[in-house]
């Protein structure tokens, strides 16, 4: 599965509601089921993403 590329310079908050599976979140901070990048809370624009998943692996990655 290809990773979900998230912008480095735009604040990102990803909330994940997953059943059985694994979450890989390269370059993100985790607080329970919420993942944020370093620009979260500091950039003018913020992306709020909600992922609802049953079974499988979720790959999140901050990209240039």
Strand order of the largest sheet: 1-5-2-4-3
Radius of gyration: 11 Å
Note poorly predicted spans: none
Instruction: Report the count of strand segments.
Output: 5
User: What is the helix fraction of residues, given as a range?
Assistant: under 10%
Based on secondary structure, the structural category is mainly beta
Range of strand content:
over 45%
Estimate nothing, just give the exact number of structural domains.
Answer: 1
Mean pLDDT: 92
Query: First CA to last CA: what distance?
Result: 20 Å
Major beta-sheet overview:
5 strands, mixed
Count of alpha and pi helical runs? 0
Which of globular, elongated, flat, extended, rod-shaped describes the shape?
Answer: globular
Order of helices and strands: EEEEE
Walkthrough of the structure:
- This protein is mainly beta and 64 residues long.
- The chain has one domain (4-63).
- The chain has no helices and five strands.
- Strands 1-5-2-4-3 form a five-stranded mixed β-sheet, with no helix packed on it.
- The model has no long low-confidence stretch (mean pLDDT 92).
Question: What is the gist of this entry?
Answer:
With 64 residues, the protein is mainly β. It contains no helices and 5 strands. The model has no long low-confidence stretch (mean pLDDT 92).
Protein topology:
Elements: E1 4-7, E2 11-26, E3 29-31, E4 34-36, E5 46-63
Parallel strand pairs: 1-5, 2-5
Antiparallel strand pairs: 2-4, 3-4
């Amino acid at each position: 599965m290809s990773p979900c590329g998230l912008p480095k310079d735009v604040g990102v908050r990803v909330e994940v509601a997953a059943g059985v599976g694994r979450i890989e979140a390269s370059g993100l901070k985790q607080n329970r089921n919420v993942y944020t990048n370093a620009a979260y809370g500091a950039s003018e624009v913020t992306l709020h993403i909600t992922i609802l998943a049953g079974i499988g692996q979720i790959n999140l990655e901050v990209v240039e």
